[in-house]
Design brief:
Rossmann fold, alpha/beta, 6 helices, single chain, three-stranded antiparallel beta sheet
Amino acid sequence: MSSPRTRVVVLISGSGSNLQAIIDGMQNTELPIDIAAVISNRPAVFGLERAEKAGIPALVLDHKQFDDRESFDQKLAQLIDSYQPDLVVLAGFMRILTTTFTRHYAGRMLNIHPSLLPKYQGLHTHQRVLDAGEAEHGVTVHFVTEELDGGPAVIQAKISIESVDDAVSLAKRVQQQEHIIYPLAVKWFAEGRLRMDDGAVFLDNELLPPSGYLINA
């Protein structure tokens, strides 16, 4: 008897390239998941087309239609919960989430951030890394907590910064790693191998270091 597949809701705000990587993993049976819905806070983004092409319900909940962050997050949680997901995946979801929302999904919501957290939280990470003269850069998948980009790391992919790199080339190289490690983190969760417990992350019941599982790309 096969194990039940993990139900996933994906939140997006844009083109959805990480969404596509996860869809691909689902369709080629690498990921034992069913994406129950894709929800965007912005209408007419390409990620919605990706979901529709894959036969996944694609919904818009426009944050501009709400008076404040709290009312939007409350409605978003209701919409997510109507699909009864085991896991919520933020894939380029460009919203700062309220404490009530993040606590509701504690231990079952993942995000990806284009830096080696805890370095370079927030926006414009590639240019900031270059401006600081860093030798390395990368990307982190982490559990979401109420601290912006501050939840415990699951996995990081690290790349060396080349002398010819600019923000555009660096973003492209980092995104290639995103499409590898995000599906992997989702797979670990779906297989019951990954969990967050009291602010710490465990893989196969082994405590991960603060950087999470590290891949040198």
